[in-house]
Amino acid sequence: MAMTNSKTQGFIEPTWDKWKQNAITVAGGNGQGQELNQLNGPIGIFIDKKKSIIIADWMNHRIVQWKYNAKEGNIIADRNRMHQLDLPTDVIVDQQSHSIIIADQGNRRVIQYSNQTQQILIDNIGCCGLAMDKYGFLYVSDGKKNEVRRWKMGEYNSEGIVIAGGNGQGNQLNQLNYPTFIFVDENQSVYVSDWNNHRVMKWRKDAKEGKVVVGGNGRGENLNQLWFPRGLFVDHLCQIYVADYGNHRVMRWCEGKEQGEIIVGGNDERNQLKYPRGLSFDDEGNLYVTESFNHRIVKFEILL
Question: Where would I find the NHL repeats (predicted)?
Fold first, then answer.
């Protein structure tokens, strides 16, 4: 089975276990700004097969690509007349159509960008996180409606189907409270970072309610707690990786266990992680994390 990162149609084999604890800056890191070597509050990221990093550069209202070992990024889409992006939160690459799909949150829409052309796929949605499964279904979390919906490829004129939440704001098993990042596994189960409930939920395909798989023990820094979870990834062993935003760490939980383990960060946010948001892996198992408040993307190299 091929690699790929947290949001592609493929899934990685979990052949890695530990990472170097010293972060390497691979995008941004030159202060807050809008120059090509800077970022401004980046959120979602996507790592392609060439190790290019595609970034939702949130407060710069743009999508930028940093090629492997590049000193600066190049703008794919921004706030100019054609694209008119406003606070984009997430980005994925559709491998089938070789296009980029953007959660254009400020404009309340999901757009597809390909070959210098732009198409609105979904309108009037409080979009936050994006995912696509191996069958080409697109999943979007809606923080305003506290739900995740799914659309069939090419049928975006429909309302989509609610596959998680949709029962009002709350902390019951059939509810969410501001869902952010999402991950879809090969069985079409959807994992949701349930931000204000400090937990990660798993909704099996066609389920009427979800299951708490990470956290759910209130806000806190213990190993059985989260503090505003964000980026998500799940491997073949059902190990769940989550960017634990308020605790300045990335956690790994085995589904069914009572607590998780810290894999990076969590000690001193000044020289490690500070408010991690996005999360992804490359095909070698190197871990990439978005540090919005340090305006950079960092890489933690795999220990072989």
Answer: 33-69, 175-206, 260-303
- Does this model's pTM top 0.90? yes
Cα(90)–Cα(278) distance, rounded to whole angstroms?
A: 9
Residues in the chain: 304
Q: Ranked by mean pLDDT, which of 11-15, 116-120, 137-141, 236-240 comes out on top?
A: 137-141
- Buried b / exposed e across 19-49, counting CB within 10 Å, b at 16+? beeebeebbbbbeeeeeeebbbbbbbbbbbe
Distance of alpha carbon 190 from alpha carbon 186, whole angstroms: 10
Structure tokens at 50: 């060439």
77-134 pLDDT, tens digit per residue, is 999 877 799 999 999 998 888 899 999 999 999 999 988 889 999 999 999 999 999 9
Pair type for strands 161-165 and 147-151: antiparallel
Q: What is the DSSP string of 230-251?
A: EEEEE-TT-EEEEEEGGGTEEE
